[in-house]
Write a structure and sequence with these properties.
This protein has 272 residues and is an alpha/beta fold. It is built from seven helices and seven strands. Helix 3 runs parallel beside helix 4 and helix 4 packs parallel to helix 5. The relative contact order is 0.15. Bound molecules: nicotinamide-adenine-dinucleotide.
Amino acid sequence: MDDRLKGKTALVTGAGSSAPGIGNGRAAAILLARSGAKVLVVDQNPAAAQETLDMIAAEKGSGAVGAPIDVTKPEDCRVAVKQAVNLLGGRLDILVNNVGVSARIRTSVVDLPPEEWMRVFTVNVQSMMLMCKYAVPEMKKSGGGSIINISSFGGMYPSAGNNAYATSKGAIIAFTRSLAVDHGADSIRANCILPGMVATPMGLANKHNTPETDAERNKRQTAERERRLKGTLLGIEGTGWDIGNAVRFLASEEARYITGIDILIDGGAALR
Ligand SMILES: NC(=O)c1ccc[n+]([C@@H]2O[C@H](COP(=O)([O-])OP(=O)(O)OC[C@H]3O[C@@H](n4cnc5c(N)ncnc54)[C@H](O)[C@@H]3O)[C@@H](O)[C@H]2O)c1
């Protein structure tokens, strides 16, 4: 524990985890709390959010679980911001927009249903616009704040058959810069993080959504982890904690002169 973020209120979306383990949102929520922030843990899956809060509480951190929220719904986003402000001390200092999904099929645009492309865009990008729409006025009242949007390596370096995800993650970079331009004068900083191939439940999920046995899943994930290791310069595996640490840095006073940037956290994969 340290007190870098003491007295600050944070809201993290997608702070549960899509499967057992430590995702980027969960790691960010735990690390913000470890540095003294009061964290509203928000997710569409209340059990996953509660699990994150339990982890925070086990470290004697401070926070609460927000009402289950679908970040594509304006009213849900408004309520989440209100809960963060009301339940956690009357201010909002830190917003982490972490929710992100991939398309359900991997294919080029030729075979990609437009509605699936739009679903990904709505969940990944419009959600951030909605959260910021309600969070920015509260941050202004609080005298400023830090918004951290989770983009992806794939937004700069797309993999094959991933058009919807890559486009949405690229858009987050532009969205973040625009936010930084509009609200720098309000002392609101906006930055984004581009995780590389980090070993989180989402990162190791079955992207083709094909049925698999436990043994098949273990084999696929082992092969995927080996492939990822070879894809970095450092030869080490990235985790949700690597992303969470960058979130915590960007949220803190240590980053007071940083806005409008995107940080690639990929073990050097972009240079391979
Ligand atoms: N893991 C990787 O390798 C990797 C790489 C690059 C970028 N990212 C990005 O990191 C972010 C997520 O990371 P994570 O590890 O926390 O993922 P995760 O899948 O473990 O957690 C995401 C959480 O978001 C919640 N969620 C999904 N849709 C929602 C919605 N509409 N409303 C509210 N909650 C919703 C899920 O319930 C889940 O708990 C995403 O933006 C993803 O694109 C991950």
